[in-house]
Specification:
6-stranded mixed beta barrel; alpha+beta; 17 helices; elongated
């Protein structure tokens, strides 16, 4: 009981002395250093949270449609007929797997009635894909027509693909050239499909290069050599490695590919870009740590007489060192939590902020144009790049925010710890002799 009481008394004494020093130093150079250090931590945490949130949102708008519409979370092929039923039962019983969708895929050259040509990926899917796979339905935003593949030779086109072909709902396109088996004609004028719907996803390459036909038509036109591929959706796409291992442990002969293996260079570029941004912003914490270290060393030197008095009154060197460590911890705590609050606030309202900057830039340009070039003022318009940025949703990840806040606290804490080592090298006799 007495040890707990002594620890509480010691901590309370350290806190009161540290607070007392902070009040006294408000008008000196140490106060400026402490304020700038806290401000640096605040801006560092705020900037890092905002940058990562916007980057996460950008990655989400790029990766998600690829996984939901193109690569799926997992792809399984080479399933033998005798193992097919067991595999389907395994997927339905698995707690990791949300749904499994068979599809065919081929490449083709489309020609419209007006003679416009475009290459595209043809994917044969179930007519009830929108209902069976909810996330597929969310990402495949039908802007014209409907996802109706019930009629024979019906096709759904991406928005940019439809514009390139110059077709709309009810028009026909001919699959002039198409990859397939040996029994499929490479060039044909008889593969005419009616456009029943036009979709638009958040990833432009899918809008430009993807089209969907029914599973029935795919079996008809892709040839006897074509084999269905089974796209698997997981409840958590980050759990793909464990899911692949569990499937391979039960069915070692089948081929399973993760979403990480598709568009690897694109996903890798996004990951490297995020890491580089994080590294650049983390340099702020290094600079702040150096400032705190130098400022704390100066503070220890300025407080040498007070340190000697505290030693005479019974304060141990570790307790006196903890006084200065408390200063660094307080600066880090205030700066980190203030920066986290501002970073989250900016991330949540990033769309409004970009729109605000767009308006500000427009009015500044308009005022200068009215003053110096009145004849060109009517031709000014807002910069479209801000509207593009405003469409990027910020995605705040709690684990990343927690890591940034902890780093913002640990950096000044470590700098204060290193700077206060000078306290352990000082003796009362030396200080009093110098005085």
């Amino acid at each position: 009981m007495s040890s707990k009481k002594n620890l509480w008394t010691s901590c309370r004494w350290i806190y009161e002395v540290s607070t007392r020093f902070a009040r006294i130093d408000r008008s000196g150079r140490s106060a400026v250093t402490s304020f700038l250090s806290t401000l640096g931590i605040c801006f560092g945490v705020m900037t890092l949270i905002t940058v990562l949130s916007v980057m996460n949102g950008f990655q989400q708008t790029s990766i998600r449609p690829i996984m939901e519409l193109s690569s799926y979370h997992l792809r399984v092929s080479d399933i033998s007929e005798e193992k097919f039923t067991d595999f389907i039962d395994f997927c339905e019983e698995s707690k990791r797997i949300r749904c499994i969708m068979p599809f065919y895929e081929s490449q083709g050259l489309m020609v419209s009635e007006r003679g416009h040509q475009a290459s595209a990926i043809l994917r044969g899917v179930s007519e009830k894909s929108m209902e069976q796979d909810v996330e597929f339905g969310k990402e495949l935003n039908i802007i014209r027509g409907s996802f109706d593949l019930s009629d024979e030779n019906s096709i759904i086109l991406g928005s940019k693909l439809a514009n390139l072909l110059g077709v709309g709902i009810g028009d026909t396109v001919n699959l002039m050239a198409m990859s397939g088996g040996r029994d499929v004609a490479l060039i044909s004028q008889n593969r005419k499909f009616t456009v029943k719907g036009i979709f638009q996803s958040s990833y432009s390459d899918i809008n430009l290069g993807y089209s969907f036909i029914s599973f029935r038509d795919a079996e008809k036109y892709f040839g006897k050599d074509a084999r269905p591929v089974y796209g698997i959706k997981l409840f958590d796409y980050e759990d793909d490695i464990s899911a692949v291992a569990s499937i391979k442990s039960v069915f070692p002969s089948i081929e399973v590919k993760s979403w990480r293996q598709f568009n690897r260079s694109f996903f890798g570029t996004l990951r490297v870009e995020k890491n580089i941004l994080m590294l650049l912003v983390c340099i702020i914490f290094v600079v702040v740590g150096i400032n705190i270290y130098n400022g704390m060393r100066r503070l220890v030197f300025e407080r040498s007489q007070d340190i000697s008095v505290l030693s005479v009154l019974g304060g141990t060197k570790m307790e006196i060192k903890s006084i200065f460590i408390m200063r660094g911890f307080t600066s880090g705590l205030i700066g980190a939590f203030t920066g986290a609050a501002l970073g989250i606030l900016i991330s949540v309202n990033v769309k409004e902020i970009f729109i605000f900057f767009a308006d500000c830039m427009y009015y500044v340009q308009y005022i200068f144009a009215v003053i110096f070039m009145p004849e060109s003022a009517e031709y000014l318009s807002q910069n479209g790049i801000y509207e593009l940025y405003a469409q990027i949703p910020a995605r705040i990840v709690f684990k990343e925010v927690l890591m940034i806040v902890l780093f913002g606290i640990i950096a000044p804490l470590w700098a204060s710890w290193q700077a206060s080592n000078n306290v352990l090298n000082m003796s009362v006799a030396e200080v009093l002799h110098d005085e």
